[in-house]
Amino acid sequence: MVKKKIYDMAKTNVVLPRIRGARPHERSFDLVEQEYNAIQVGPARRITVEDNDRLIVNQGDDSVHPRLHALEDKVTQAIIAQNVVLKEQQKVTEAINHQQQMTQALIDKAFQNREEFLHNLSEIQGERLEDTTRHLLQDHIRYITSIVKRLNQDIEGLEAEIRARDHGILGTNAAVGKLEVHNVTSLQDLRGRIVRCDASIAKHSSDIKTCFGDIQRVINDQYKAHTAVQEVVHKMESQILALGGELEKLAGISSSDLLHMKKDARRDLDLSTERNENSLRDIKNALTLYKSSMSGDIDRIESRMSSMVEKATSTWTQMLGKLESRLEDNVFSIQGRLSRVESAVARDRQIINNLHA
Known about the structure:
Elements: H1 2-10, H2 25-39, E1 46-50, E2 55-59, H3 66-122, H4 130-164, H5 172-275, H6 280-356
Helix pairs in contact: 1-3, 2-3, 3-4, 3-5, 4-5, 5-6
Keywords: Coiled coil
InterPro entries: FAM81 (IPR029619)
Family: Belongs to the FAM81 family.
């Protein structure tokens, strides 16, 4: 599974420098071949030729001493072992190069996640999360830097270990296994941190959306209450205007009646004066009776108008009292909702402070 991951990460376009001293065995192989040629005396019994990492042994003269033959066999085995060591070290070098490519790809992925994180944070217009997001981003960058430094230190240690193992193969497999385990652990740790960061970002985003939704609902409720209050006020004003119109109408009717009465009285007085001066006493009595009846009508009209004004005033006072009570109830309900929203915002702020701590 680790090799498959390394192969997948190697498909990226990341190009890293080659490890210094990747093939130090070529000079050693030349030195061994020179020593082997220096040992030969007379015609060689067997000639070893290297062709594309293969050893071809040719039979020679059988007159050489057996000890020389044994020495040739040992030298041949040493060359074979040296070639095996060279191949193993080449494999380890390739694995280190793949590891560097994978590390670079992880770094690029981490920076890409950082850019996405900054883009998501720029969409949030609240000033409450600015310090928290800045600290989270700084911690994320510090953690990525520490991982890169640790991986660079591990790679430098592995390079030194490869240079130290040029003359032997003992411990190569153990070092490769340890490196794979360490890299897998680092990858798992990095992925876990990235997943936790994404989860915390999603949680904060959902909390902010919830707070915005609550605030919007409170604003809508307040707007509805304000609209209802305005409608009630408009109705009261229309009723007051209607009552004022009725009062003006009644006053006009009463004044017109009084004018007609005065005209009739004057006309009757003129007629009675012209008709008979002898009936002056009767006319005076009639006028006295008529004045008394007219004063009674005026008193009744005034009492009726005062009762209507008092009734309208009491009705208007009751409606104003009901309106004030409804306004107080709406204000209390809005204050309760605002207090709940403020408590929710305080809890969110406390959660953010706890996460930052």
